[in-house]
Design a protein that fits this description.
It contains 5 helices and 8 strands.
C-alpha cells in the first residue's frame, strides 16, 4: 500500500488544453478593471454634481424670493381695517369701560376723510361720547394744518369768560410725532348782551371737550375728541392726555 501511494504521488498528469491564452485574458481583465474604475469615478462625479444641484434647490436652501410690491389697498379696505383696529384697541385705552359701541366710519363726500363715533359707559357709570376722525393728505392740508393750530383765530370755541383762551398745547412725542392737545368750553346762554368774541361770545369757562390731533409721516392726521357725557353736559371730558395721544398716534390708522 505504501509503495502504491508513492507511485501515485510521482505521476504527473497532463493538463487538458485551456482554449485561451492566460496572459491575454489577464491583460483584458486588467483593462476592463481600469475601464470600470473610470466609469465608477465618472458616475460618482456625476452624482456629486446632481447632489449639489439637489441641495441648491432643496426647500430649506431656496434662494430668497423678493415679493412684488403690494398694490395700495382700496378705501373700503382701509375703512374696514381701521374700524376693526379701533374696536381692538379701545378696551385697552378706555380702562374699566363697558358697553363700548363703535359706529362704522363714514366717509365725507368721497374725500380722504372719515369719522367714527364711539359710545361707552365709563367705570363710574357715566355714558360718554368719543369721536375719531382720520384725514388723508388732501384734507389734512386743506383743513387740518398744523401751523397756527393754537392761534385764537382758529379756536373760536375756546374763549373763556376772562377773555383768555382755553388750553391749547403743542408737543412732540418721543417717536417724533407732532401733537396738539386742546380744550373747548360751552357758551353761557345767560350772558346776554356780552360782547361777541370771535363770533362765539363768552362762555362759562368749564371744560366741555378735550381733543388731540396728530400729524403722521404719511401726510395725514388723526383727531380724537372726547365730547364728555352725552346725557350729562356737566360731566366734562374723561380721557387724559395720555389716552388721547395713544389713540391718535397709533401707526395702524391710515386713510388716503
Amino acid at each position: 500500500m505504501d509503495e502504491l501511494e508513492d507511485r501515485l504521488r510521482g505521476i504527473t498528469l497532463a493538463e487538458p488544453p485551456l482554449g485561451f491564452d492566460p496572459d491575454e485574458v489577464a491583460g483584458k481583465a486588467a483593462k476592463k478593471a481600469r475601464n470600470r474604475r473610470g466609469v465608477v469615478a465618472t458616475g460618482i462625479a456625476t452624482l456629486a454634481v446632481i447632489a449639489a444641484a439637489v441641495v441648491f434647490v432643496a426647500p430649506g436652501n431656496e434662494p430668497e424670493q423678493v415679493a412684488p410690491a403690494a398694490a395700495p389697498s382700496s378705501r373700503e379696505e382701509q375703512k374696514a381695517r381701521d374700524l376693526q383696529h379701533l374696536k381692538d384697541v379701545l378696551p385697552g385705552i378706555l380702562v374699566g369701560a363697558t358697553d363700548i359701541s363703535v359706529r362704522d366710519f363714514i366717509q365725507v363726500n368721497d374725500s380722504d376723510l372719515m369719522t367714527s363715533e364711539v359710545r361707552y359707559i365709563d367705570a363710574a357709570g357715566v355714558k360718554r361720547l368719543l369721536n375719531l376722525t382720520i384725514s388723508g393728505p388732501v384734507t389734512t392740508k386743506d383743513g387740518y394744518r398744523r401751523e397756527g393750530r393754537c392761534d385764537l383765530g382758529n379756536r373760536g370755541d375756546a374763549i373763556g369768560p376772562d377773555r383768555k383762551p382755553m388750553r391749547c398745547e403743542e408737543l412732540v412725542t418721543p417717536a417724533g410725532i407732532p401733537v396738539v392737545i386742546s380744550e373747548t368750553t360751552p357758551k353761557n346762554p345767560d350772558q346776554v348782551g356780552e360782547p361777541v368774541v370771535l363770533g362765539q361770545g363768552f362762555s362759562t369757562g368749564k371744560v366741555s371737550g378735550r381733543s388731540a390731533i396728530a400729524w403722521h409721516s404719511w401726510g395725514g392726521s388723526v383727531n380724537a375728541i372726547d365730547l364728555g357725557a352725552w346725557d350729562s353736559p356737566d360731566a366734562g371730558p374723561a380721557l387724559t392726555d395720555g389716552q388721547l395721544i395713544e389713540l391718535v398716534t397709533d401707526p395702524v390708522f391710515l386713510f388716503r
